[in-house]
Amino acid sequence: MFFKRIQEDIDSFMARDPAARSRLEVVLCYPGFHAIIFYRLSSALWRRRLRLLARLISQFARLLTAIEIHPGATIGARFVIDHGFGVVIGETSEIGDDVTLYQGVTLGGIAPSVDSHTQVDIKRHPTLRNGVIVGAGAQVLGPITIGEGARIGANAVVSRDLPKGVTAVGIPAHPVMPRDRMAAQRFVAYGTPAEGCPDPVLATIETMRAQMSALQNRIGELEARLCEAGSSADDDARDLRADAHDGIPMSTPMAAVGDHRRR
Predict the structure, then answer these.
(1) In degrees rounded to 5, what are phi and psi of residue 72?
(2) Distance CA 154, CA 136 (A)
(3) Is residue 134 located within the same domain as residue 211?
(4) CATH of the domain at 129
(5) How confident is the prediction along the chain (263 residues), in pLDDT tens digits per residue?
(6) Of the residues 1, 5, 86, 201, which has the fewest C-beta atoms closer than 10 A?
(7) How far is it, in rounded angstroms, from Cα 25 to Cα 89?
(8) Is 94 exposed, middle or buried (0-12, 13-18, 19+ CB in 10 A)?
(9) Which of 224, 216, 174 lies closest to 197 in space, CA to CA?
(10) Spatial CA neighbour of 61 closest among 26, 32, 90
(11) Neighbouring C-beta atoms of residue 137, cutoff 10 Å
């Protein structure tokens, strides 16, 4: 079973990394694969209650690969860590089959360090369902669930559950929909489609900007009309003052003013 799982992991690297020229190259040169081998061994020891030995092996793997996987984590088949430098996978993390992580990813907990004895064997880290892709530098924090086939873009920070098949980007991460929905079902390197994803938050901001621009234009039109009305009122006032200067009392009706002008 152990060697069959290792064979599947090698095949997964070959399938998902075009830089992999041969299986021997994966075995000799891929730190992500090395980290997985050490994890499989340390996890077997962890389940047999040889906890200290398991931790020693995981720490040796960390020194060798710069990838830290706690032996208590649960990881499924065909797991790929591409590049891998700086990846951290916490103790209660659960990872399904066909999952891909890139460098700098953290599957971490958010529980405070105080009273840590009360958090032993408590779920503190995320669960990644089958087929999840997590882009470089992304942080997936807390006992949340990432749905099957979901994609997390590079440098995103996820602290809430994500439903099946969505792509999430940003800080904090929010779901977006790729322009090509069929392409979203295929493998996407780093979790973010190259053609981009329409950002609903950005779309809302752009809509608000357009509405504000329309309101500013309308306010400008109203101000211009008020200025014109004020100018007309000033002209009428000047005419009245001129008529008063010509001897027509200000209280004289406008009809009488008209008769005076005709005379």
Answers:
(1) -80, -10
(2) 5
(3) no
(4) 2.160.10.10
(5) 777 888 888 989 998 888 888 999 999 999 999 999 999 999 999 999 999 999 999 999 999 999 999 999 999 999 999 988 999 999 999 999 999 999 999 999 886 666 666 667 788 899 999 999 999 999 999 999 999 989 998 889 999 999 888 888 888 888 776 545 555 555 666 656 555 555 566 666 777 888 888 888 888 888 888 888 777 766 666 766 666 666 655 555 555 545 544 45
(6) 1
(7) 25
(8) middle
(9) 174
(10) 32
(11) 17
Instruction: For residue 21, give both structure tokens.
Output: 């020229």
Is the bond leading into 143 cis (omega within 30 degrees of zero)?
Answer: no
3-state DSSP call for residue 251?
Answer: coil
Rounded-to-integer distance, Cα 50 and Cα 241, Å: 105
3-state SS, residue 157: strand
Residues 142 and 239 in one domain: no
Of 207, 150, 206, 136, whose CA–CA distance to 178 is shortest? 150
| C-alpha neighbours within 13 Å on the C-beta side of residue 140 | 35
Cα-Cα-Cα-Cα dihedral sign, residues 80, 12, 16, 158: negative
Q: Domain range holding 257?
A: 204-262
The C-alpha atoms of residue 8 and residue 95 are separated, in whole angstroms, by 16
The type of residue at 256 is A
Are residue 147 and residue 208 in the same domain, yes or no?
Answer: no
82-87: long-range pairs with CB below 8 Å, 24+: 82/16, 82/17, 82/32, 83/31, 83/32, 83/136, 84/31, 84/32, 84/35, 85/31, 87/32, 87/35
